[in-house]
Amino acid sequence: MAAAARRSHVERAADVGTQAMSTAAMVQKVAQDTAERVAAETSARVSKQYEAAIAELTKTLDKNTKRALKSVRAAADVAQAANPVKGKKNKKK
After folding, report:
1. CA 21 to CA 27: how far, in whole Å?
2. pTM, entire model
3. Which terminus of the chain has fewer Cβ atoms in its 10 Å neighbourhood, N or C?
4. Distance, C-alpha 6 to centroid of its chain
């Protein structure tokens, strides 16, 4: 305690300043680490959501394409049944 009493106001202020700078650096490091972790977690979550959305879109497109092809085939079958293609007849003169 005697040593602390002998220190001047300037020395004590310098010690407090050093402590404040050390604390500020530690707070900045924790904040940066937290920001990086949150950014990585958010990025991973968004990436998974994009993958799920793309998979769902692909599934829907496949289903709709199959449905459309079925409709086109059915329409072609109906058209062919109503107006069958006739072969060309050779006309002899």
Report:
1. 10
2. 0.54
3. C
4. 62
Instruction: Determine the Cα angle at 23 with ends 17 and 29, to 5°.
Output: 140
State the amino acid at position 86 in one-letter form.
Answer: K
Ordered alpha helix ranges (H), the chain: 2-6, 9-82
Label residue 92 by pLDDT band (50, 70, 90): low
CA–centroid distance for 18 within its chain: 43
Structure tokens that stand for 57 in this block: 């879109």
Over range 30-35, report the average pLDDT: 98
Q: Cα torsion for 52, 53, 54, 56, to the nearest 10°?
A: 80
Would you state the structure tokens that stand for residue 19, as one six-digit string? 């402590």
Phi, psi of 35 (to 5 degrees): -60, -40
